[in-house]
Design goal:
Order of helices and strands: HHHHHHHHHHHHHHHHHHHHHH
Structural class: mainly alpha
Number of strands: 0
Shape: globular
Largest sheet: none
Radius of gyration: 25 Å
Helix content: over 70%
Length: 454
């Protein structure tokens, strides 16, 4: 009798695993088809930045400028390997699919039961297939690869927080390398992830071995961030951003012009006169320096003085992007769909899963509240998701403060990290809350039936 009971239980477990296998594979196939179809249904979209990647791809792969040129090497390497726009978009869409499936499967492992695991998987995949996230697969740019790298980094951090093995630590390092090899701006999340994993290991109830691993991982991630920062400086990309930053954040504002003039910037009266003649737009003024003296000064001293300005006026790091998000070239108030192909098919759930910022904050707070009501404390997974969301916001602010053009696009990785973290927080609280509610209801029904029998 006991053997029959054991064999029956094992059969149920086996059938449940088979059902879950089919469900997860079906979701993966549907997601893969939709993403690749959307990326390849029409010719690839080419942009001004595309020529930069093509030129860098034309360099010998062993040359130093290929590996730390104006652009990080991974996008140019993919172009070199695929040899054309159609092959490039197909390859980056396949990478996109694999990366987001990795994140979806990682998040699903935090739940038990077929329905909850499938719900977690669907949440991640549906978010990844929303228009603001997946439209980049059709463009020859670095954005699709950058979003894939973000998904891999989030998955690696979640896996490491859940286990903390040496293999999982290696995943985090590889994910960090992917991020900085796609975009120099991803140095910021890599450095902040280093702090997160250090805190995770210090807080573990384990012997010193785990903490030593955390210190080593922290050092490796910090090394990746520092080396990438040095290569970005060597490439000259930071100097290229100076004209657009000054044109949108300094020259239109007489108070800031006076501060920079007091610290060595030439021709302040001429800049103020030019700003007065420049008509204002809804997003602000763009005052382009035309004086040879000013342009020469920007090339030699503009970067160091701008950094000094940020360090001595730290509140502007927060106040400017919040109060004046449109202070940039080619800004459309956060609407990244201007980069989308006109003949696309938008998923109907895009507006629901990629809403405004207030809704995202509300989702995160609701998830935290549900989890706290369930456990009477904030558990480790919740803290990790909160940390990833904060890293996303910090990445957005860093991108805005260091770029004076196309800020909507350059903030994309941080925005996606924040929004995905908010949705995960909501799911982490809601799905566990539902399980606890159903379990409590079942316990009450069982006790009621027992009382009736008695």
């Amino acid at each position: 009798m006991a053997e029959r009971g054991l064999s029956g239980w094992l059969a149920q477990v086996r059938h449940a695993r088979e059902d879950e296998w089919w469900v997860q594979r079906s979701l993966a196939v549907a997601f893969s088809w939709y993403i690749v179809w959307q990326a390849t249904i029409t010719p690839a979209r080419l942009w001004p930045d595309t020529t930069l990647y093509q030129a860098q791809a034309g360099l010998p792969i062993w040359s130093a400028r290929f590996w730390y040129g104006i652009k990080p090497p991974l996008t140019s390497l993919l172009w070199k390997l695929t040899g054309g726009a159609s092959g490039f978009t197909l390859a980056q869409s396949v990478i996109f699919v694999a990366s987001w499936l990795f994140l979806a499967s990682t998040f699903a492992t935090f739940f038990t039961g077929l329905l909850r695991r499938a719900s977690a998987t669907v949440l991640v995949l549906v978010f990844a297939s929303s228009a603001p996230v997946m439209i980049w697969n059709r463009s020859v740019l670095s954005d699709s690869l950058a979003l894939s790298a973000v998904a891999v980094l989030m998955a690696a951090v979640l896996r490491y927080a859940g286990g903390g093995s040496t293999r999982q630590a290696a995943y985090v390092v590889l994910a960090a390398l992917l991020n900085v090899l796609v975009r120099y701006s991803q140095i910021v999340p890599v450095a902040l992830v280093a702090l997160v994993v250090l805190v995770v290991d210090v807080s573990r109830r384990r012997p010193d071995r785990s903490r030593r691993r955390g210190v080593v991982l922290f050092g490796l991630l910090l090394l990746v961030a520092l080396l990438s920062s040095g290569l970005a400086k060597q490439s000259g990309v930071t100097s290229l951003e100076m004209p657009s930053l000054y044109a949108t954040r300094v020259f239109p504002l007489p108070g800031r012009v006076a501060w920079f003039a007091a610290h060595g910037m030439p021709d302040a009266p001429g800049i103020d006169r030019q700003a007065a003649r420049t008509p204002a737009s809804p997003s602000g003024k763009v005052v382009i320096a035309t004086s040879p003296v000013v342009t020469s000064w920007l090339a030699s001293h503009g970067e160091s003085l701008y950094v000094q300005w940020l360090l001595t006026h730290p509140l502007t790091l927060l106040s400017d992007p919040i109060a004046h998000p449109g202070w940039a070239y080619y800004s459309d108030g956060g609407n990244v769909l201007v980069y989308a192909a006109p003949n696309r098919t938008d998923a109907p759930w895009s507006a629901l899963l990629y809403p405004g910022w207030r809704w995202c904050v509300g989702e995160a707070l609701l998830g935290i509240l549900l989890g706290f009501m369930l456990l009477r404390r904030v558990d480790r997974t919740t803290w990790i998701l909160i940390a990833l969301g904060v890293i996303g916001v910090a990445t957005m602010l860093a991108a805005w403060d260091t770029s004076g053009q196309e800020t909507d696009r350059h903030m994309l990785e941080g925005a996606v990290m924040f929004r995905m973290s908010a949705l995960m927080l909501l799911a982490w609280g809601a799905l566990r809350w539902r399980r606890a509610t159903v379990s409590a209801l079942g316990a009450r029904l069982t006790s009621s039936e027992a009382a009736d029998v008695a």
